Amino acid sequence: MSDTVLLAEERQQVAILTLNRPQIMNSFNFELLRALKEQIDAVRFKPDIRVVIITGAGEKAFCAGADLKERATLNPMQVKEFIFTIRNLFTSIEQLNKPVIAAVNGIALGGGTELALACDIRIAAKTASMGLTETRLAIIPGAGGTQRLPRLVGRGKAKELIFTGRRVDAQEALSIGLVNQVCDREHLLDECLKMASMMCETGPLAIEQAKYAINHGIETDLATGLAIESNAYWVTIPTRDRLEGLAAFREKRKPVYTGE
C-alpha cells in the first residue's frame, strides 16, 4: 500500500478517493483532511468527472474518525482548528456539484460516520458498522453529525444513537435509513460503480440542479422549496443537454450529454 494518505483514481467519469491509513483504521489527521480537501476542490472543476466515490483502504475500516493519537498532542486551539477544518470539508462534500457515494467498507465511527452522512448516497458492506460514539469520550459530534443524522433518520433515533454512543450494524443501518443499500464486501465497489454508471447516463447539469434543489429546499417551508425547485429547473431549460435529451428520445437512441 502506498505511503500516500489518500489515493485518487479515475475510472472513466468516476473519481474514486480512498482514505489510505489502514494501519490506524483510516482515521483522520490534519494531513488526510487537507489531502481530501484538495481532491474535492479539484474535482469540482473537472467536467469530465460526473460522480465521486469515497471509501477506505483495507478490509477493516471505512474511517474510525479522528486520529486520537494526534488529538492527544494538540492544544485546545489546535483542536478547534481540526474541528473547523473537518466541518468545512464535510460541508464542501455535501455541497459538491456532483453526486458523492460513500462506499462504507467496514467500521465507520465518529467522523467516519459523519463523512458518510455528508455524502449523497451510502452503500455499506454487510460487515460494516456505524456510529456517532463521541459522547463516550465526553465530547459531541463536531463535523455535522448532530445535524445531518436527525435529518436522515429522524430526531428520536438520532438522539438515541448519539446519547448512547451505540454502534449499528449494516442491516440496522439499512432498516433506519442510514444507508441506501447493503451488499457483500467483495462486491461493494462494483455496486457503487454500477450506481455511478447510471448517474453518468443522466444530464450532469440536471444532477447539479437537482442536488441543489434537494439540499436547499429541504431546509425551508414547502412554498420556498418549490420556488427553489422552479429556479433550478429554469437553469436547465436553455441548455444543449435538454435539447439533446429530447432529440435522443425522438430518435430512439441514448443521449450523449456534455454538461452544456
Question: Which features would summarize this protein structure in a list?
Answer:
alpha/beta, single chain, 2-enoyl-CoA Hydratase, Chain A, domain 1, Lyase 2-enoyl-coa Hydratase, Chain  A, domain 2, 4-stranded mixed sheet, 260 residues, globular
Report on the structure:
There is one protein chain. Helix 4 (111-118) packs across helix 5 (145-153), helix 5 crosses helix 6 (155-164) and helix 9 (204-217) runs antiparallel to helix 10 (222-236). 48% of the residues lie in helices and 16% in strands. The strands form 2 sheets. The chain has a 6-stranded mixed sheet with strand order 1-2-3-5-7-10, sandwiched between helices. A 4-stranded mixed sheet has the order 4-6-8-9. The protein folds into 2 domains: 6-200, 2-enoyl-CoA Hydratase, Chain A, domain 1, CATH 3.90.226; 204-251, Lyase 2-enoyl-coa Hydratase, Chain  A, domain 2 (Orthogonal Bundle). The chain has 11 helices and 10 strands. The mean pLDDT is 95. The chain is of the alpha/beta class and 260 residues long. Strand 2 (14-19), helix 1 and strand 3 form a beta-alpha-beta unit. It starts with 5 loop residues before the first strand and ends in a 9-residue tail after the last helix.
